[in-house]
Amino acid sequence: MPAAFYNRAMTQPTLDFWLEYASTYSYPAAERISTLAKNAGVTVHWRPFLLGPIFAAQGWDTSPFNLYPQKGRYMWRDLERICGRHNLPLRRLEKFPQNSLVAARVALVGFDESWGDDFSRAVYRAEFGDGRDIGDTAVIADILRSLSRDADAVLARAQTTENKARLRAQTEEAQKLGIFGAPAFVTADGELFWGNDRLEDALAWALRFTR
To answer: CATH homologous superfamily for 13-206?
Structure first.
């Protein structure tokens, strides 16, 4: 067979995990994905982005779970069931969605330094497990210190012009990929899966061209 076939077959399959820190269903996905991907032999690339600009492009000024209250009530009850099944703490937020801008900027720094996944899980635990406001920079600083990071230094890097531009570019990339919600998973061949309940399907698809 052609060498290209062998090279492709020997390549570790990958999956892009698009996450939004204000997203409820991204919480269980972030808790589950590393173990599932490791067991499947798939390399995951965590891709923080912002849903706000994507919602705004559709004429929405808030989450669809707020625009459609019945859908929102269902979402919270569904999340209770999911978190109960996976032994994850959950609190219904008084303020939803929260401002995830600083968290996303910090995450980009974290993924540069290989602690972004730990930071991400800690953000979701603080937000949906403890009910803390991740839009408060002091909360993000507390999370960084809990991970033994220099909070002041990290926050300074996160707020640089270059890092802000990176997050904008990543959000624009998500829009171009057709992503409309979080969590979203995109395989190497461009197949899009949306929702925590599609994580296993996305991992299975990622393996299709490596067997």
So the answer is: Glutaredoxin (3.40.30.10)
Domain ranges of the chain: 13-206
Cα 73 from chain centroid (whole Å): 22
Distance between CA atoms of residues 174 and 164, nearest Å: 16
Q: Give the pLDDT band of residue 209 (cuts 50, 70, 90).
A: low
Query: Does the pLDDT at position 14 exceed 70?
Result: yes
23-28 average pLDDT score:
98
Angle of CA points 41, 193, 77, to nearest 5°: 105
Is the dihedral angle over the CA atoms 42, 164, 139, 141 positive or is it negative? positive
What mean pLDDT do residues 27-46 have? 97
* Helices 151-158 and 137-146, axial angle in degrees (round to 10): 130
**What distance in Å separates the CA atoms of residue 109 and residue 151, rounded to the nearest whole number?**
12
